[in-house]
């Protein structure tokens, strides 16, 4: 079989074509990341008039600070809960829509709409729903003798941001799970049904293993989402409170750097957060991917 190969008329043309993307990556990722690493080794006054090199002082101070260590554990709980809930609900919805013969496209469109909502708007929406004074859910919970006030109860505040962040991410996960389900050969399900396997057994023994590449991809995306993209949700719903109960790592970078004006510590926290995400991704590719069936 004869294969065609693209030949560029000039040697510099391929580099010219990728130059805009490389420039964007350099300006908006490489340069800020390099500046953060540089600032993490410096002590700078709030006005940026003077700096001095302090070495690993910021890093050593962070890992001896109880508030920062607590935020690491808090972020781990938040990331795990959001990933499990959002992926679980998305898979259930994808299976339900995949079984529809009619109106499947209409259901898919409606389920994708929440993803178009910005994190801040999603946070405000759930803040209104769970508002202890005017919200409908606290009123319903009072009927079963559960008093809801996330402004005073740290556990309830964490539940609120988990629900808001999960709701925002379900649509994204749903889209990929639905695409994965539609790519599963129907002949495999039919053969298993002829052998006497029920719907549940067919799903767990045939369909779900074939979804493992999609599940692995979404696991990485969801963990990165909880680490970086949930700042707007936390800021709009709880502001890190009450009593720092929802002050996750990404939000602590903001409070220490932008509000507290401790630029060196904030830069060190952003470097540590980036290192956590990179290490987590490497571990997933190194160990979790072994269970993925392509």
UniProtKB/TrEMBL annotation:
The subcellular localization recorded is: Cell inner membrane; Cell membrane
What GO biological process, any one, is recorded here? transmembrane transport
User: Which controlled-vocabulary keywords does the entry list?
Assistant: Cell inner membrane, Cell membrane, Membrane, Transmembrane, Transmembrane helix, Transport
Which N-terminal residues, if any, form the signal peptide?
none
Q: Which CDD domains match?
A: TM_PBP2
Cellular component (GO) terms are:
plasma membrane
**Topologically, how does it sit relative to the membrane?**
Multi-pass membrane protein
All copies of domain ABC transmembrane type-1, residue ranges: 72-284
Which Pfam family is one of those matched by this entry? BPD_transp_1
Decide whether keyword Transmembrane helix is in the record: yes
What residue intervals traverse the membrane? 12-31, 76-98, 110-129, 157-181, 202-221, 268-288
Role: Part of the ABC transporter complex UgpBAEC involved in sn-glycerol-3-phosphate (G3P) import. Probably responsible for the translocation of the substrate across the membrane.
PANTHER family given for it? BLL4140 PROTEIN, SN-GLYCEROL-3-PHOSPHATE TRANSPORT SYSTEM PERMEASE PROTEIN UGPA
Protein family according to the UniProt entry: Belongs to the binding-protein-dependent transport system permease family.
User: How does this protein assemble?
Assistant: The complex is composed of two ATP-binding proteins (UgpC), two transmembrane proteins (UgpA and UgpE) and a solute-binding protein (UgpB).
NCBIfam families of this UniProt entry?
A: PRK10561.1
State the protein's name.
sn-glycerol-3-phosphate transport system permease protein UgpA
Q: Write down the species.
A: Devosia oryzisoli
């Amino acid at each position: 079989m004869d294969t065609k190969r693209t030949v560029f008329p000039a040697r510099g043309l391929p580099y010219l074509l990728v130059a805009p993307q490389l420039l964007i990556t350099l300006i908006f990722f490489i340069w800020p990341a390099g500046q953060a690493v540089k600032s993490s080794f410096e002590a700078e006054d709030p006005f940026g008039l003077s700096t001095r090199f302090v070495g690993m002082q910021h890093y050593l101070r962070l890992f001896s600070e109880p508030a920062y260590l607590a935020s690491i554990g808090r972020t781990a709980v938040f990331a795990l809960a959001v990933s499990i809930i959002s992926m679980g609900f998305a898979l259930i919805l994808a299976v339900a829509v995949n079984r529809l013969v009619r109106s499947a496209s209409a259901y898919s469109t409606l389920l994708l709409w929440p993803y178009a909502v910005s994190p801040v708007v999603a946070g405000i929406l759930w803040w209104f729903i769970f508002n202890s004074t005017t919200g409908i859910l606290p009123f319903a919970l009072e009927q079963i003798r559960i008093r809801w006030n996330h402004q005073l109860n740290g556990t309830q505040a964490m539940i609120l941001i988990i629900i808001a962040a999960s709701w925002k991410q379900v649509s994204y996960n749903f889209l990929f799970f639905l695409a994965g389900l539609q790519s599963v050969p129907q002949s495999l399900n039919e053969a298993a049904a002829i052998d006497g396997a029920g719907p549940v057994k067919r799903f767990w023994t045939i369909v779900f293993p074939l979804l493992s590449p999609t599940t692995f991809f979404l696991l990485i995306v969801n963990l990165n989402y909880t680490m970086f993209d949930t700042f707007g949700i936390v800021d709009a719903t709880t502001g890190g409170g009450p009593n720092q109960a929802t002050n996750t790592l990404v939000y602590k970078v903001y409070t220490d750097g932008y509000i507290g004006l401790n630029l060196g510590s904030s830069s060190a926290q952003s470097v540590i957060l980036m290192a956590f995400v990179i290490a987590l991704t490497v571990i997933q590719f190194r160990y979790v991917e072994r269970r993925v069936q392509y």
